[in-house]
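forwarding from the other thread:

> can someone predict this with 1,3-dihydroxyacetonephosphate?

sure thing
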Amino acid sequence: MRTPMIAGNWKMNTTVEEAVALVKDMQKELEDISNVEKLVCPPFISLKAVSELLAKSSIKVGAQNMHYEDKGAFTGEVSPLMIKDICHYVIIGHSERRQYFNDDFYINNKVKAANKYGINPILCIGEKLEENQSGLTMDVIERQLEQALAGVEHIGNLVIAYEPIWAIGTGKSASAEQANDTIGAIRQKLGSLYNNKIASTLRILYGGSANAENIAELAGQSEIDGALVGGASLKPEQYISMVKQTSAVYNKK
Ligand code: 13P
């Protein structure tokens, strides 16, 4: 069985002090839960402090983005070399980065760079509202997968996050059945791009207004392997509850 993951994408929130305090709140409650992978993705500036705090913890640390070059004249960017020793994961291709920072062009290189440095990529894909309403969801997603994974030979450590853009930060989550169907189709596509065996082992998360109210239903679906959580991951009681509920769901699976 795939180990579910509840990943918190903190986006551009928390100072270093706030990040450390948030993690401490979560740690007390979550350290001993072992059937769910817990991941926090604070802003770059907090990664070092948080990773030191969590050095011996069962909670893992991820970055929200990175450049694909090792170093160079890329003002304001952070390279895989700089994060590889403090991050287990890196989020790549979040829709906010695709929208505001033209990340579409760089995603394939970023996936390759993550693999090169042994940072597990969490690749975000998802359709816009009008694409969803026009029945284009799978066209968009297949294109995103093909672009992101072109020339990528090894996907064993890849995590996919299906985040329909219309569900992000809107309070309107996709229904659990809807998300499960799309994630099943994503798995099939990965099977055709690679093979069904590897596709069946990959974790595919749902993201978009996931919270303590809907996580049990989402985690109970056959294809959904947890969630990439924005707003609710900044509220310790919500995040803790989401991990605990997912743990309970998987204890019964
Ligand atoms: P919300 O959970 O705030 O909708 O954000 C989802 C998201 O973008 C996670 O990466």
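The domain at 5-252 is CATH 3.20.20.70 (TIM Barrel). thats all i got for now
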